[in-house]
Specification:
alpha/beta; 27% helix
Length: 612
């Protein structure tokens, strides 16, 4: 009898296969980019040939490679080497120290940027940085600090290079905070439209092509370090196709991707969304590509009039009456072209109107199995879940509440927060559900923070959001991050389980996800990540197996700085809200500007409670 020899075999492990036919194993054999066999060493002994590489797992836990069903990895990769990350930094004092050190390294005309991935509630101080503190970082180097979708804090140097003066008008849906004389203070506010934040960020310097290639490779390797082997890219503003996809397609063409990527196209032109998708349909088709890099459809933005921004510091936005007409036209086109689509949808009120549009289109042009889904859906009702199920849609959820839960509870109440989003109810309805982060500009890209949120029901600041009936056990949460997410790119038959014939994607963990204390989940990493049958990350005792990676470029990049692990955060004030200073009121819904010392003396209005 002919025996097929494996190229690699991993033995002596605790393998959580997520294969219902064989949920546990101690060994797995790989051949090419597929899993050859799974079982114990005795069962797999016949697959060990003279050239088979053997890797001793030494009792470590192995899981299927993680899959983030909503992340902005292509845009994130272009910028990763320019951005200082505050993900997991335990104190504001540490965060500001990192900012000052980076300002000293950063040459003109570059900026120091912190772009998402943090919450004021993760800090021991339980507060935001003040504008005084941001200005103290550097008088000459522009500093831009983005917090979620709600604000950006800029120092005077950044205001100067952006050209923001007392004569600069506020954009629609946004506000430039001003002092008593009308000059900008450095605080930009989304109310609730985040365009002011992203348009300002987009005016900063970009990396050159070679540095963007390097940046993307390092970002992918960082995600590999956390056990990710697949991502579904949700597009983004200022991310046009095909121009802003040159770097990722360059890497795909050279065989240098270390993540599987399925990408969606995000409309770029308000009032010309139909033209965007009509034009793109002449350039690319869903599924075009391969198992490593392929086109996944449209979204997450289909029309700008449907954008219900999830700034929980602001009231829920009412969408314009023209939304239905504009969205219907685009969805009809996508359905005719058989383009799968996804749509950003935060609030149930918006979701109900979106479903009205989908149902009307479906009556004229049947979806007939076309894959579509909502992203986020924090406040979706059971009635609208029934409608999603009837149209055979899915829901991709993210851990945005882990970073914004305190704000949501302060505005809508603890009871409403208990079912935001109603994860277990979605699953009970049989709706496909995938997990993710919405990184990098809102949440952290760390999947273990998301898995912590799914299983503990807590924010990164320690606020307990959910009762037991809306929390998942660890295996169920892991299924969402593997098998669940695979549905959203049509890959449920080949991803999400360690089983013969499946893609050879897996992660060997630094500690046992299934037994570590709850708080320790946030600090888990992968010590060995395999994607497409190849080792794409290795550390610790496996470091000698790590594939080469060029040094970070440019040499002033903050990307090489490893900040504190999320697992080390000290949640001393479990469930507390922000502790405010300098005359602010203590309500996290209120904007706290603090006092700022300017050239003409000190000024500041403390808490802007009057706005609410």
């Amino acid at each position: 009898m002919n025996t097929t020899f494996a190229e690699s075999i991993l033995t002596n492990g605790r393998i959580a296969t997520l294969d219902r036919d064989k949920p546990q194993a101690t060994a797995v054999a790989l051949l090419g980019n597929r899993i050859l066999a799974v079982g114990d060493e005795g069962e797999l002994a016949g697959h060990i040939g003279p050239d088979t590489r053997r890797i001793d797992l030494k009792g470590r836990t192995v899981i299927p490679g993680l899959n983030d069903s909503h992340i902005h990895v292509i845009r994130g990769g272009l910028n990763y080497n320019m951005e200082l990350r505050w993900d997991g930094v335990p104190s504001l004092a540490d965060a500001l120290r990192l900012l000052r050190e980076q300002a000293r390294r950063t040459p003109p005309p570059q900026w120091v940027r912190v772009v998402g991935g943090w919450s004021e509630f993760q800090f021991a101080e339980r507060r935001m940085p003040t504008l005084d503190e941001i200005n103290a970082v550097s008088a000459e180097t522009p500093v831009f600090v983005l917090h979620l979708y709600d604000r950006a804090l800029l120092n005077r140097a950044a205001l100067h290079v952006l050209g923001y003066t007392k004569d600069t008008p506020d954009p629609p849906g946004g506000r430039i905070e001003r002092d008593k004389t009308g000059n900008p203070t450095g605080l930009l506010l989304a109310q609730p439209n985040a365009l002011i934040l992203y348009a300002s960020l987009a005016l900063g310097p970009r990396l050159g092509f070679d540095d963007q290639v390097n940046s993307t490779r390092h970002f992918m390797r960082e995600l590999n370090r956390l056990g990710l082997t697949s991502c579904i890219d949700a597009g983004g503003g200022f991310q046009n196709y095909p121009e802003d996809y040159r770097v990722i397609e360059h890497l795909a063409g050279r065989g240098e991707l270390t993540l599987r990527l399925a990408y969606n196209l995000f409309t770029q032109h308000p009032k010309a969304e139909y033209e965007d998708f009509s034009g793109w349909s002449q350039l690319v088709t869903p599924g075009q590509g391969n198992d490593l890099y392929k086109m996944n459809g449209a979204g997450e933005m289909l029309v700008f009039s449907a954008a219900d921004f999830e700034d929980f510091l602001e009231p829920r936005p009412d969408l314009a009456p023209v939304m239905e007409k504009e969205l219907g036209k685009v969805v009809a086109l996508l359905t005719q072209k058989r383009w799968p689509f996804r749509l950003h949808a935060t609030y149930d009120e918006s979701i109900g109107r979106f479903l009205d549009v989908f149902e009307a289109v479906n009556r004229d042009i049947p979806f007939d199995g076309l894959r579509w889904f909502f992203d986020h859906a924090e406040t979706i009702s059971e009635r609208n879940m029934e409608r999603v199920r009837a149209l055979e849609g899915g829901i991709a959820i993210q851990d945005r509440m882990a970073f914004q839960g305190e704000y949501f509870v302060a505005r809508y109440g603890k009871e409403a927060g208990k079912r935001t989003p109603p994860i277990t109810t979605m699953l009970n309805y049989g709706i496909p559900v995938g997990a993710g982060t919405d990184a990098t500009r809102v949440s952290s890209y760390n999947p273990w923070v998301s898995l912590y949120w799914l299983t503990s029901g807590k924010t990164v600041g320690g606020l307990s959001l959910y009762d037991a009936d809306n929390r998942l056990d660890r295996t169920a949460a892991l299924r969402l991050y593997t098998q669940g997410s695979a549905w959203f790119s049509g890959d449920e038959a080949q991803k999400g389980a360690i089983a013969p014939g499946r893609l050879a994607d897996l992660a060997v963990l630094s500690s046992d996800y299934f037994s570590v204390p709850q708080e320790a989940i946030k600090g888990i990493e992968s010590v060995l990540t395999i994607m497409d049958g190849k080792i794409v990350h290795a550390s610790g005792e496996y470091a000698s197996l790590a594939p080469p990676l060029p040094p970070v470029s440019p040499d002033w990049s903050p990307a090489g700085i490893r900040t504190a692990a999320w697992g080390s955060l000290a949640n001393a004030s479990q469930g507390g809200l922000a502790h405010c200073h300098d005359g602010s009121c203590g309500d996290p819904l209120h904007r706290h500007t603090h006092r700022v010392v300017g050239e003409k003396g000190s000024w500041g209005i403390g808490c802007t409670c009057f706005a609410f």
